[in-house]
Design brief:
The structure holds two protein chains of two kinds. Chain A is mostly helical. Chain A contains 22 helices and two strands. The radius of gyration of chain B is 12 Å and the shape is globular. Classes of the chains: A mainly alpha, B alpha/beta.
Chain lengths: 451, 100
């Protein structure tokens, strides 16, 4: 077991550190975060629009007219449907920041590059007609939402790389001193901005001559589909969870590191569900594995599903250290924050407790996936519930108001309890024995064991 | 004394902030202690005298230390045991030792 710990330290940590520090992945992760508050706000309107109360629709229609739902969902369109635009700007901004070049200009140029790669064609079915025709002159909502995420991210990185290389080579228009800096800055962005747009423009002209026709088609064939299949499968989910837990076992923030790679995939899978749900809240949703699947059903109490462990510690611990740790950890645990447990118990670098810590989330993935895929439990509806929302509430909201979502969370809580309990008992007995042998170990200090 | 704490989302460190403020108050110390996420960290460096980072993001230590060195601010990783126990007094002592 000690060899296993050493292996984790020697092999997993350096690789994880490099991935987490990789600047493009970092920019993607930080850029996507920019869209999260918007998605949560949009979700509030989504929840209100589909409250599962009998007679709710009729009641709302009576008070607010028969188009009440369309009007209520305006903010959903302005948040979910512009995800790629926000990410396009955000990723370029964060990347430029890392290169210490003007981030605002880089963001604006990236946004223009993304729109330049997007054909301004909107599908339209005239009244009475059977076939849909393409009308030009509109920005297609289809591509500036989650479906355009990958094009937005790729172009944000390419355009910012071109931008910063030209700036760093100092091929810019310089204005004489005395010109206000804000004016001078906009001239600095002229040459690199033009270079980016010309590159994307030429690439688009060439693409239009191929069967792919546009950036979006190429990316959805080559990237979107294979990645979604991989990221949306139960196998992919188990691998992701294993990685998160292994990283946390060495004390590194696994979710932040793995999320940098998997986040965009889980986000677009989530939005696929949202689009179907919005059409018909009772329809069969396409995906189980989404961002919410992990945040709300697997990581109950934080990575490793430690809420059950915190409660056990508070109620059952015989050792003073663990009892006081349980009391300390329960409040943050309810909001899915568990660093007091991972570092305080500790689970990190602890050969005994790492076993259930890795095992529990894997079991929960299998159970939750099976429950949702067979239709026993409702799938996540695409509503973006913040990961800090306590269970029962979060399961209800994230399934679009289905009680089965809450029930599965409670079941998962007890599964976690059952797996943690024997390991907890061993550790507790060990701690209690240490305290008896050495009465100076107080509840607040000490506990340097295996750190 | 301005102490900046950094972690992934600025959440678990904010638990520690409360405990450190209590500890500072008990000693009658004048201290401003606050927590931010790793993404926002850079914008806060200029107001800090000491920067402490959560052990779960110690892979960012090298980059953050460089930021600190450029401004002459000590940067270090919080001891995992103190972090887990939310040992406000201990971490406050650590910050004071670093500042010296």
């Amino acid at each position: 077991m000690d060899r296993f710990i050493r292996m984790l330290e020697d092999r997993v940590m350096p690789v994880a550190g490099r991935i987490a520090e990789q600047r493009h992945l970092q920019a993607i992760r930080d850029g996507i975060i920019l869209s999260m508050p918007l998605l949560i706000i949009g979700s509030l309107f989504l929840i209100v629009g589909f409250l599962p109360i009998p007679g709710y629709n009729e009641w709302m229609a009576k008070w607010f007219g028969e188009h009440w739902l369309d009007k209520l969902l305006y903010p959903v369109g302005a948040t979910f449907d512009i995800m790629a635009l926000v990410v396009s700007f955000g990723v370029a901004y964060r990347l430029a920041e890392k290169y210490k070049v003007d981030a605002l200009s880089a963001g604006a140029i990236s946004l223009a590059a993304f729109l330049l790669a997007t054909p301004y064609q909107v599908p339209f079915t005239p009244e009475g007609a059977k076939e849909t025709i393409m009308v030009s002159g509109g920005i297609p909502v289809q591509w500036v939402g989650s479906k355009g995420l990958f094009v937005a991210m790729i172009l944000a990185i390419v355009s910012t790389e071109i931008y910063r290389k030209i700036i760093q080579k100092n091929i810019v228009i310089k204005l004489p001193d005395g010109v206000p800096p804000a004016v001078a800055r906009s001239f600095v962005a002229l040459i690199p901005g033009a270079a980016v747009l010309v590159v994307v423009w030429v690439a688009r002209l060439i693409l239009e001559m191929t069967p792919f026709e546009s950036f979006h088609n190429i990316v959805s064939v080559l990237l979107n589909k294979p990645l979604s299949v991989l990221g949306g499968s139960v196998f992919g989910a188990i691998v992701a969870v294993l990685l998160v837990q292994l990283l946390w076992s060495t004390g590194l923030h696994g979710a932040a590191i793995v999320g940098g790679v998997m986040g965009p995939i889980w986000l677009s899978l989530m939005d696929e569900n949202r689009m179907v749900f919005q059409q018909n809240p009772n329809a069969e949703l396409p995906n189980v594995i989404t961002q919410q699947f992990f945040d709300l059903w697997i990581y109950i109490g934080g990575s490793g599903a430690t809420l059950a462990l915190a409660l056990t510690m508070m109620l059952r611990a015989r050792s003073r250290q663990l009892k006081s740790l349980g009391r300390l950890a329960i409040a943050p645990g309810i909001f899915n924050i568990n660093e007091p447990i991972t570092f305080g118990m500790p689970i990190v670098m602890n050969p005994l407790l790492i076993i259930p810590f890795i095992l529990v989330p894997v079991v929960l993935v299998v159970v939750s996936y099976a429950a949702m895929a067979t239709g026993l439990v409702a799938k996540p509806s695409g509503v973006a519930v913040p990961w800090t929302t306590p269970i029962v509430i979060s399961g209800y909201l994230a399934t679009g108001g289905k009680i089965s979502g809450s029930i599965l969370q409670i079941v998962n809580f007890f599964i976690a309890f059952a797996i943690y309990y024997p390991f907890f008992s061993i550790w507790d007995r060990q701690k209690a024995a240490e305290e008896q042998a050495d009465p100076t170990i107080s509840s607040g200090a000490g506990a340097t064991h295996s750190l | 004394m301005n102490i900046l704490l950094i972690c992934a989302a600025g959440m678990s460190t904010s638990l520690l902030v409360t405990k450190m403020q209590e500890a500072a108050k008990e000693r009658g110390m004048e201290a401003t202690i606050w927590a931010v996420s790793a993404d926002e960290a850079k914008d806060h460096f200029d107001r800090a005298d000491v920067v402490l980072i959560g052990p779960q993001i110690r892979y960012k230590f090298a980059a953050l230390k460089k930021e600190g060195e450029a401004r002459g601010i000590p940067v270090d990783v919080i001891n995992p045991a103190d972090y887990g126990r939310v040992n406000g007094a201990g971490v406050l002592d650590f910050a004071l030792r670093l500042k010296k």
